[in-house]
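Record type: monomer structure entry
Structure origin: computed from sequence
Chain ID: A
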Amino acid sequence: MVYSEQVFLNALKILEDRRSKAEQEVQEKKKRIFESIEELGKLSKEIAEVSLLAVKAIANGGAAEQVKQFKLKSLELQKKRDDLLKENGVPKDYFKCRYYCEKCHDTGYLVNGFCDCLKKLLINEAARDFNIKAPLDKFSFDNFKLDYYDNNLVPGLKEPVTPREQAKKNLDFCREYARNFSKESPNLLLGGGTGLGKTHLSLAIVKEVLKKGYSVVYISAVQLVLNLEEHRFSSNEQGKYSMDSFLKCDLLVIDDFGSEPISSFSVASMYNIINTRLLQQKQTIINTNLSGQRIVDQYEERVASRLLGEYYVLKFYGRDIRQVKHLRF
């Protein structure tokens, strides 16, 4: 997976801060204990000096017997230290460094490659990098205004409903979805005309899911395809994002699905993302102005069948809210 240099730097900075914090806590513990138990400080200093002498002896080709004596002396001093700690009610592992990740000690690397903690940070930082431009502060469930939707029945529906009633149902559903978001949550397809609140509610979900610590990527369909095309065709990959950027985040939100230029590459890319995330049971939210029939017409059957058959569909009705707002002022 290819990440931008800045994403790598951000992830490594987090690891450095974690490592420094863990090591600083050990130093503070030592300082407190050495101040209260003076003999312990002396023993620790002796242990360090004997260990240094042993290292120098080995480096200078010292006799095996000499090296052995240094090691025995070190063990003797360590026992005295442990006994002193026990006498004062201090746990034997009190000075152990408590790293956030015990596998790599917050370095991010193992013998065979990246540690899982670094992989997770890279995914989170890539997601955060994508979301920097998303205006999350402007969208919440509380400022979703139902009075912009009219109370006239939507014609042609088997079950009568008004745009406002449907908007209220959608608001309540999305609020609960965000509140209870987990790896068992359903995928969502938010469908309806332009300016009916699909983006508002999906951004409100993003805002709440991010607070829970999940990695989230929010991106328009146009930007998604452009990112993949740049990554595929550019010789300079710095700043570009691979397909994995969209496959591995906990929640992917694709806005304005259907507005991207349709090509064999874009359709294949969308299918890969949709299908892979379904197989991996990773949550996806898709907003679209397309009707079900237009999704079938515009995309391959395998794309349409997954969206219409395996996503929970929320329908939006009414007039473009932006136009309603304009008429009111």
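Annotation 1: The longest strand covers residues 251-257.
Annotation 2: The mean pLDDT is 85.
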